[in-house]
Amino acid sequence: MEAFFQSRQQKYKSPFGCIRQEEPCRVAVELKAEGKPAVYLIIEDDMGNRLRGIPMPYAETQDQKHSYECIFSISECGLYYYYFQVDDGTEKLLILKNRGQAAVNSGGKWQLTCFAKEYDTPKSFCGKVMYQIFPDRFYRSGQCDASDKLRPFSLHEKWSETPEYRPDAKGIIQNNDFFGGNLNGIIEKLPYLKNLGVEVLYLNPIFKAYSNHRYDTCDYKKIDPLLGTEQDFQRLAGQAHQMGMKLLLDGVFSHTGERSIYFDKYEEHGNLSACNHPDSPYRNWFQFDTKNPNGYHSWWGINTLPCTNEMDPGFLDYVIDSEDSVIAHWLRLGADGFRLDVADELPDEFIKRLHQRVKEIKPDALVLGEVWEDASYKISYSVRRRYFVDQELDATMNYPYKDAVIGFVQGTKSAEELAETVMSIAENYPKPVLDCVMNSLSTHDTMRILTVLGVENAPQRRSERAGYRMSEREYRSATEKLKLAAFLQFVLPGCPCIYYGDEAGMEGFEDPFNRGCFPWEQIDGSLFTFYQSLAKLKQEYSALQIGSIRLLFAENGVCCFERETEEEHLVFLVSVRDSYDCFLEHQPVTLGNAERQESRLVLEKYGYVLFRTD
């Protein structure tokens, strides 16, 4: 017996991917078999419990293939799996998923997410060009009043210096060296960002903290003194909005800093310290444990980052529920949403409650979660997460696309593997979510993309990595690869997010070398122009913003996809082969490392082309 089923083709499954509550879904399967056996669609929950066995009536026979089909719907949101059972009267066989194709008694099950019928994500974020800023390192304009800054700290004399990476005399890396980048600096550079094509600004934490990364929050309702004031924030939000840009803030709620006004380990703030006083009003906000070496739970064992008890009523009220909660405070001052740090370490109930509150205050605001894996079936702390089925997140940081794109460009992943990752995420994520995912090539948590693609023999010592700069040959090779990677970043579903300085040619290994200061005096003009052209493409074609995606083929280092809306039909082709020649009757919209020769198209290595067929 042979079986034929491809969940990514409308011939077999419609609609593609996730379905809404009570939405009719048609499924068909084809068999090459003697006679006409009975066929059933088997649906299970995410624990493997069989929920339904739906008979699939015989439909027709073509090319010696018997076709069976049925239409079903699901009323309860959740994560489901399905496969097919064939009963020919003598034995029962299973049709399973094996490398995306149907196989008899071999493989796994197809995934199916059912999400709320009324759920949607903000249209104003779909397919927009994002830009991530590490505030201390972007631009400094004037001086800020640092009298209220947590001490000790140091300010670098030169903008071009390397961030401090060495431990102090006690062996601790303090992360308390600053360059003075501030909110007024971002305001001053808004025209630059507008010219680049940026539509959404994502800022790493800006709230008062001790460290330069500011993930050790001291006060959720105050701007860090070195960044400016609340009035500066309002001015930034107002001017960004005037230029058509949204503003996304980093919300760090799984932990605070040990020197926060709430935990107050060293009793610096005049409050009743939660760390030292059992009767502190903040005591229940944290997870104290006498068996723990610190006496309290901390994020990944880092004692400067005490973990919060997110579901404590007092903490919930302060962060989410009260009239002037943290969420309400910043949304009303101009924020357009939040990126939730380590979302997989926040309880589902907390995220859902936060999402609901955000939408009450600003319905078109975005809630985006940091999740490094496929978020549709993510298990964290032995709990299956319900980010999409319970309307918790509008989007996630799309690391699977990042890893697949970089692997393809580097030659460590095949075209088939790139295609499988792209289409798996497209199949597993609700379409409204897919349109808003953040597609990055670099972040503050990863090496700079140029360094990843260009460095041939990375030094092992941190002292050598700190000052390492690529040779001209390495840089040239890196930019050639980067252009293909960035092209994919912009034409795939979701929001391409430029990590500040990637468009200028910044390099850097791991933290803190990936967090250097923006090189305003040494911007790679050709690279900037390239990113600018990609942003224009994304903004010009609705198919690149909200269009469906379909794989046309992937083989031998070449991938071809289509993006489509009712008005537009685009096709893009990428290649890492030394040379690829094909027939092309359409005029390219854009191409790189490629040449049009009458009706032929020749792609060199790292070549790409986008053309319109409608």
Anisotropy-based shape = globular
**Count of DSSP strands:** 32
Oligomer: single chain
Protein structure class: alpha/beta
User: Which stretches of 5+ consecutive residues score pLDDT under 50?
Assistant: none
End-to-end separation in angstroms reads 40 Å
Rg to the nearest angstrom?
Answer: 26 Å
- In percent terms, what proportion of residues is strand? 25-35%
Please characterize this protein's 3D structure.
It is a single chain. The chain is α/β, with parallel strands linked by helices and 614 residues long. It contains 14 helices and 32 strands. The strands form seven sheets. Strands 24-21-20-19-16-13-26-25 form an eight-stranded parallel sheet. Helix 7 packs across helix 12 and helix 12 (472-491) runs parallel beside helix 13 (525-540). The mean pLDDT is 97.
List the helices and strands and how they pair.
Elements: E1 2-4, E2 13-14, E3 19-20, E4 25-32, E5 38-45, E6 50-55, E7 58-62, E8 65-72, E9 78-87, E10 92-98, E11 101-104, E12 110-115, E13 130-133, E14 154-155, E15 177-178, H1 183-188, H2 190-196, E16 200-203, E17 207-209, E18 217-223, H3 230-242, E19 246-251, H4 313-321, H5 326-332, E20 337-340, H6 348-361, E21 366-369, E22 379-380, E23 383-384, E24 395-396, H7 399-410, H8 415-428, H9 431-434, E25 438-440, H10 449-454, H11 462-466, H12 472-491, E26 495-499, H13 525-540, H14 542-546, E27 548-555, E28 558-564, E29 569-575, E30 579-583, E31 588-597, E32 600-612
Parallel strand pairs: 3-12, 13-16, 13-26, 14-15, 16-19, 19-20, 20-21, 21-24, 25-26
Antiparallel strand pairs: 1-4, 2-4, 4-8, 5-6, 5-9, 7-8, 9-10, 9-12, 10-11, 17-18, 22-23, 27-28, 28-29, 29-32, 30-32, 31-32
